[in-house]
Amino acid sequence: MRKWFAIGPVGTVLAGALALGPVPAPAAAAPPVATAHTKAGTTYFVDCAGGDDNADGTSESTAWRSLARANKVKFAPGDSLQLRAGTTCQGTLAPKGSGTAQAPVSVEPYGRGGAPVVDGAGASAAVLLENVEYYQIRKITVTNTGATPAQRAGIRVLLRDYGIGHHYVIDNVTVRDVNGTDHRYPRPSGGILFEAAGSSVPTGFSGIAVTDSTVDNVDRTGIGITSDWQKRPENPKGPGTEFVPNEGIVISRNTVKNIGGDGIILFNGNRARVTENTVDGFNMRSTDYNIGAYAWNSDRTVIEHNTVRRGKGPGMAFAVEGGNVGTTYQYNYSQDNGGGFLYFCQDDGETAKDGIVRYNISQNDAADAQGLGLLNSFCTGVSNLRIYQNTFYAPNANSLVEVVRPNDFTLQNNVFVGAKDGSTVNDRYGTYRYNLFDRVTALPPNGEHNLAGDPLLTAPGTATSVSDANGYRLQTGSPALKAGSRVTGDGGKDFYGNPVPAVPHIGAYQKAPQ
Question: Fewest beta carbons less than 10 Å away: which of 169, 413, 431, 505?
């Protein structure tokens, strides 16, 4: 996927296209993820401190002792497996049997105390859901450290030649300390992984919700969805014999930190939502190039209201890559990502088109860019990528834009603030309209109505998260005020939730100065 500078194990490159023209309509709501409603079934109990595997396991006083005993049960719709709070169970939890839409199988704690811990002790997964569906996992902690790195996951949901698997809810779970290998795909390692695998039965997911969870200190992927069923005209060299989309995906309100490689990745999504997550520290140990949050070979993905920060260079916050159609990044906050804010690219005959990057704020990205800029593309072919109404504050970036090959993209109504001694804009291919540049060596030659000057931001450099970025409002007298040009289909609201006026300001802020 990623081949920054033609390097990397899976084949993706940096490329983008931002042409004005008919704006793709905002992505419609994702197909609903099944709601949490569990019909009464049998409840089984596991107490790894004081249980007995010879008991019947159907009450707290007759709880089993081990995960191995629980793995012998074939769970039926509505069944629940409860782990005693404050205990640690070693080994792999690998339940058999499936629930239904009306009666999922649930895994959750019972009793008082801290979240029960499932310690995989170096297994290939601490929790393994293999060829089962309609599961809900809540309020447990998972860890999986082996003697040496190996293909390893905290929670692995694996469908192999299964068809479509439905309803997987992972909520309020902590996954930590997984020393996997540096493999994104195939043979992925990471914290919470979903894999659509196989070669004989087209396989995918319908209904994934990963919410309010924490993934900490894992290698290499924080939260990931991959697929062996990628082949389609937009990705003709992809694996598999056909394309199977993953539907109804929501990844929301999670904290993903100290990640060896990519923070959040999504393959084969259809109208997926990645919202309100914090990715704090990625590309920490990988030898590949990595992204904070991105989609691959997906349609109409919306990635919004996320905080992505402290990615080790040359990792970048976001990417518009090959095989993606209609990816939208909006209302995100990006900070201190060594490799920059955005990587855009298509390669190997892939198609990347109709991407939108709007109303985002970037603070001090590309300070450790290792030859990269704030925005980057090193391959060709991205079409109709539109980057507009963003505020980029990069006081330590040598370059604001690095595009070395032809791409079809437009930058409009953006604020760029470079380094004190002037940052460069190395791009002969993008179209620049109504942007405001401060501290650059020269304005880009390819465009119109671009301005130079101090945007008079209220307190640049003081933001810490998507909810604490008030320093990027405009002050009275800013040359950005009413200096932009309205973009058709622009979403209607700025980074702060203000309506966009008929004549917009330049940048992510659209309200009149106070």
Answer: 431
C-alpha distances in Å from residue 19, one per residue of 24, 53, 109, 400, 425? 12, 64, 52, 19, 18
What residue has token string 């622009």? 490
Under 8 Å CB-to-CB from 35, ≥6 apart: which residues?
none
Residue where the block lists tokens 């469908």: 159
Instruction: Indicate the average pLDDT of the chain.
Output: 92
Tokens representing 85 are 């709070």
Q: Which residue, 70, 63, 107, is CA-closest to 90?
A: 70
Q: Measuring CA to CA, how many Å separate 230 from each of 65, 147, 322, 326?
A: 42, 34, 12, 17
Distance CA 453, CA 380 (A): 32
The CB-based long-range contact list for 66-72 (8 Å cut-off, 24+ gap) reads: 66/91, 67/91, 67/92, 67/93, 67/94, 67/118, 70/44, 70/46, 70/95, 71/95, 71/96
Indicate yes or no: pTM above 0.85: yes
Distances (CA, A) of 50 to 62, 81, 222: 10, 16, 33
Distance from first CA to last CA of the chain, Å, rounded?
47
Alpha-carbon distance 259 to 193, whole Å?
Answer: 14
Q: Which residue has the tokens 């259809």?
A: 270
Token pair 């690998």 in the structure block, residue: 94
Whole-number Å distance between alpha carbons of 423 and 438? 9
Structure tokens at 110: 């019972």
Q: Is the peptide bond before 220 cis (omega within 30 degrees of 0)?
A: yes
Q: What is the pLDDT of residues 332-385, one digit of tens each?
A: 999 999 999 999 998 778 999 999 999 999 999 999 877 899 999 998 879 999
Give 375-410 pLDDT, tens digit per residue. Answer: 999 988 799 999 999 999 999 999 999 999 999 999
The whole-angstrom separation of Cα 27 and Cα 196 is 24
Q: Which residue has the tokens 């993008």?
A: 430
pLDDT over 90 percentage in the chain? 88
Give whole-number Cα distances, 299 to 24, 106, 247, 327, 489, in Å. 12, 31, 10, 7, 18
Predicted confidence (pLDDT) per residue in 150-182, tens digit: 999 999 999 999 999 999 999 999 999 999 999
Rounded CA-CA distance 37/27 in Å is 28
Average pLDDT per 10 consecutive residues for the chain, totaling 514 residues? 36 29 40 46 97 98 98 98 98 98 98 98 98 98 98 98 98 98 96 98 98 98 98 96 98 98 98 98 96 98 98 95 95 97 89 97 91 92 95 97 94 98 95 98 94 98 98 98 98 98 98 84
Q: How far apart are CA 76 and CA 99, in angstroms?
A: 6
Helix H or strand E encompassing 68: helix 67-70
Using alpha carbons only, what angle is made at residue 372 by residues 367 and 378, rounded to the nearest 5 degrees? 160
Please state, in angstroms and as integers, the Cα–Cα distance from residue 14 to each residue in 110, 291, 340, 344, 407, following that order: 48, 11, 11, 4, 11
